[in-house]
Specification:
With about 270 residues, the protein is α+β, with helices and mostly antiparallel strands. Helix content is about 35%, strand content about 30%. The strands form 2 sheets. A 5-stranded antiparallel β-sheet has the order 2-3-1-4-5. The protein is globular and about 60 Å long.
Length: about 270
């Protein structure tokens, strides 16, 4: 079995006294447990995304006694299925996948460095878009002590290496989301990635001049959904090609940044 041990450390506020509000700590630990389980399962199962995050096929997570003198929770990830990933690359890939997927969810800049995670990032299917949505609630829960004390910082630390990811008042804004009640019409752009089965994809928004994740509502007709594949194909064939118009509700961060579109109508531009 391969064992990977790391620490979740709480800084400032009550954590400096070696304590946290019990309810806030429980919510935060639950959020970390879900986020870590979702990420670890994807690592061990070829990018399969589990939405509930309560179990890992091929692995287990355990907590160990906290270290005296600080509020630091030690966590051990045990890979029970040796065929899922090589022992020599497991730790590097695990931390790389955490840093990439969690950074995307928290609006931080990071690109994969290991071959295992790069392979996931290069898929035609929008793995990262669906992972972002699945991780948003758990990572918001993980921020719970920061909601009560904005000066607090929570860091996931790799043994003998240092900080992998940091949560603070600014990253909290990226997972504090609201959905606009009204539909925004005639959003112009083209599809860059799309998963027919899940309905998740990536949409290049001409007005924003960047790519935004989207999810298609279930009642959108199959004829309209075919335009997504058409757009992706023609966008790759020619510059400026494959343009479509979508109507969608916008999901925004606390900063007012567009995080995702929930698409209700699609047509050619």
């Amino acid at each position: 079995m391969t064992k990977i041990t790391f620490a979740i450390k709480y800084h400032y506020g009550d954590a400096e006294q070696g304590r946290l509000d019990m309810y806030d700590a429980a919510v935060s630990f639950q959020g970390f447990a879900k986020a870590l389980s979702i990420t670890a399962h994807a690592l061990l199962n070829d990018g399969e995304i589990r939405r509930k995050g309560h179990s890992i096929q091929g692995g287990e997570l355990f907590i160990n006694p906290s270290r005296k003198g600080s509020f630091e929770q030690i966590v051990t990830f045990i890979i029970t299925n040796p065929e899922s990933i090589g022992a020599s690359v497991a730790a590097a890939a695990f931390y790389d996948l955490i840093k990439w997927t969690w950074s995307k969810t928290l609006d931080l800049v990071y690109e994969p460095e290991t071959a295992h995670v790069k392979k996931l990032s290069e898929r035609i299917e929008p793995f990262i878009g669906e992972m972002e949505e699945v991780l948003e609630v758990p990572l918001e829960q993980a921020h719970r002590p920061i909601k009560q004390n904005p000066e607090m910082v929570i860091a996931l630390n790799r043994q003998r290496v240092g900080e992998v990811i940091r949560l603070d008042a600014e990253t909290l804004k990226s997972v504090s989301l609201r959905t606009e009640p009204e539909v925004t019409e005639n959003i112009k752009g083209n599809i860059t990635r799309y998963n027919i089965l899940s309905g998740y994809g990536r949409f290049y928004d001409d007005d924003l001049e960047r790519t935004v994740s989207f999810k298609v509502e279930e009642d959108v007709s199959s004829t309209q959904k075919q335009l997504l594949t058409w757009s992706m194909h023609y966008a790759q064939e020619s510059e400026g090609g494959g343009k479509i118009l979508i109507d969608a509700k916008r999901i925004l961060t606390a900063r007012g940044v567009v995080k995702r579109y929930v698409v209700s109508s699609i047509r050619q531009a």
